[in-house]
Amino acid sequence: MSDKQDNNSSNNVTKQDLSTAPPAPGTTTSHPDQKPSANTTKRARSPTASEDPAVQQPQQKKVHAQVADHYNARPDVGVEKRKESTIFRMKSFNNWLKSVLIGRYARPRDRVLDVGVGKGGDLLKWSKAKIQYFIGCDIASKSIEQARERYRTMRNAPFEAHFHAMDCYSEPISNVVAPDIVFDMVSMQFCLHYSFETETKARMMLHNVTSQLKPGGVFIGTIPDAYWIVKKLKSESDDKLQIGNSIYSIRFERRDRFDKFGSKYWFHLEDAIDDCPEYLVHFPTFQKLAEEYGLELIYNKKFHQVYEEASQELDFNQLLYRMNVVSENGSLSADEWEAANVYLAFAFRKKN
Predict the structure, then answer these.
(1) How many CB atoms lie within 10 A of CB 80?
(2) Do 206 and 44 meet the contact criterion of CB atoms below 8 Å apart?
(3) What is the C-alpha to C-alpha distance for residues 128 and 103, in angstroms, rounded to an integer?
């Protein structure tokens, strides 16, 4: 259940059997139970931009701009066109997993801050959660325009929503959000890893997560699993700098050193991400920093583990079918299933 605490370390969580594979492409599924393929708090130091190497180095600015440009350039192709994607099942699986996280932790009439809202793909999920108030922020201004339009065209949207184009890793959320607004939940889906470019950015991210999050409020998200990525890279031959399959690739410049911040790699995901720079999130460092900002870890699971648990619950199991993760035509391919396991899901609760 959502309130059950799970404080497994990152290493323990990721040392699971990775041999599990989904049914082969084209496998049919006829039964809803069948598996688819496959305390004292230290006061936090306020971040200052003048300390940040990324602010001081023009080369690092290029990374910031490259990420924004990448997401600004990706069109919103619509529901029917998305079904033609080569990774349609994996995208559906990722959306299902986010629905599980939101379903576990969101409550009716919640006030939600979504950092990295993108084009607003999760707005319907928040609508179904019956939240009351929503603020979405993203570094990509064109994505924010599309999110705003998506919200405008929602039928009888049950919550008030506002959208802001800003870099939540370099500027305080108070620049766009009134200080009297208190959030029940903060969500960061597939974007937190960009903050681990530097410690200053990571601290600004956590400042923005916690500064207006109420005591007892929840911070949820999804990130690449650095432990699994590095372990898989180390299992390759000594001269290899890349891992992946036909769906994804992760490419490093070196493999002999992985720092807590600034460990950059280039990520490609077919029909989604085009060789974009990202950063490893050293989870013990992330957890330690989060504790400084008054957050306690309550959930930390690999995507495969989330599936194994949630698929046993009737509502989430049926949602696998409604969201096209599984259908009579099959489910995730083996390569999609492996690519999904690059990620983990987490939840923190703000201490009272």
Answers:
(1) 7
(2) yes
(3) 9
Over its length of 352 residues, how does the chain's per-residue pLDDT go in tens digits? 333 333 333 333 333 333 333 443 334 333 333 444 433 334 465 565 445 544 444 554 455 555 555 455 545 545 556 567 889 999 999 999 999 999 999 999 999 999 999 999 999 999 999 999 999 999 999 999 999 999 999 988 889 999 999 999 999 999 999 999 999 999 999 999 999 999 999 999 999 999 999 999 999 999 999 999 999 999 998 889 999 999 999 999 999 999 999 999 999 999 888 889 999 999 999 999 999 999 999 999 999 999 999 999 999 999 999 999 999 888 999 999 999 999 999 999 999 9
Tokens of 280: 């490893």
Which positions make up the binding site? 94-95, 98, 116, 138, 167, 189, 194
Cβ partners under 8 Å of residue 262, min gap 6 = 53, 196, 197, 198, 279
Report the C-alpha gap between 30 and 34 in whole angstroms.
8
Q: At residue 334, what is the residue type?
A: A
Q: Which residues participate in the annotated binding site for S-adenosyl-L-methionine?
A: 98, 116, 138, 167, 189, 194
Contacts of 1 (CB under 8 A, 6+ apart): 104
Q: 24: exposed, middle or buried (C-beta count within 10 Å: 0-12, 13-18, 19+)?
A: exposed
Going from N- to C-terminal start, the domains of the chain cover 55-350
Q: Which residues are part of a known binding site for mRNA? A: 94-95
CATH assignment of 55-350? 3.40.50.150
Strand partners, 183: 213
pTM here?
A: 0.81
| Close Cβ partners of 112 (under 8 Å, ≥ 6 residues apart) | 106, 126, 131, 133, 134, 135, 183, 184, 185, 186, 187
